[in-house]
């Protein structure tokens, strides 16, 4: 009986060692991927005449693949891009999100979230689990948030909620969502919107940031020309 218990304990120890090695290998692999993805954003700042003050993200199918409200609920665990709900893989962080969030933090751009999920408390727990900021492992997606908007209403309501807590100006903000109708609604506020039907990617991020910068630079130029004309006249 004693021998059987010892053998059983050894098998458990081996399983723990294998799980630990697998988790470590996943961490190393995702870290390499994150560094490579961040390299793809290196020259973006030089291409932007103007930075937004805030960037707001939808969550489900934008930051991660899947719907948090359809998970099994807490406890949640995050490992190698995958969010587990009660031990079952339920959500997957999109590959370029760590690089994008790191870029925004490094350039002083405020981050916000706007989600129609029916489980905002679960969403906040998941955001608190994910620490994607390269070189700053203590920062979770929850900690870098300047404000959130929740509820199954028009995304304009979410933006108003975030504006109330952050003071953002709609036209100085960028918004990303995987649903085109949400982008249409928010764009009516004067916000530059990035449509990401397959989740956040560096390509969508770069193109939308350039669109925002060009729009703001053009607006500034038009305003300057108008002021100059009025002075001359």
Textual characterization of the structure:
With 233 residues, the protein is of the alpha/beta class. It has one domain (2-232): HAD superfamily/HAD-like (Rossmann fold, 3-Layer(aba) Sandwich), CATH 3.40.50. Helices cover 48% and strands 18% of the residues. The chain has seven helices and nine strands; from the N terminus they run H-H-E-E-E-E-E-H-E-H-E-H-E-H-E-H. The chain has helices spanning 2-39, 44-47, 97-106, 120-129, 155-166, 180-187, 202-232, and strands spanning 54-57, 64-65, 76-79, 82-85, 88-93, 110-115, 145-150, 173-177, 192-195. The chain has a five-stranded parallel sheet with strand order 7-6-1-8-9, with helices on both faces. It has a four-stranded antiparallel sheet with strand order 2-5-4-3. A hairpin with a 2-residue loop joins strand 4 and strand 5. Helix 1 (2-39) crosses helix 3 (97-106). The longest helix has 38 residues, at 2-39. It starts with a helix and ends with a helix. The model is unreliable at 11-22 and 223-233 (pLDDT under 50). This is Magnesium-dependent phosphatase 1. Residues 25-35 have a biased composition (Basic and acidic residues). Residues 1-36 are annotated as: Disordered. It comes from Perkinsus olseni. Residues 1-13 have a biased composition (Basic residues).
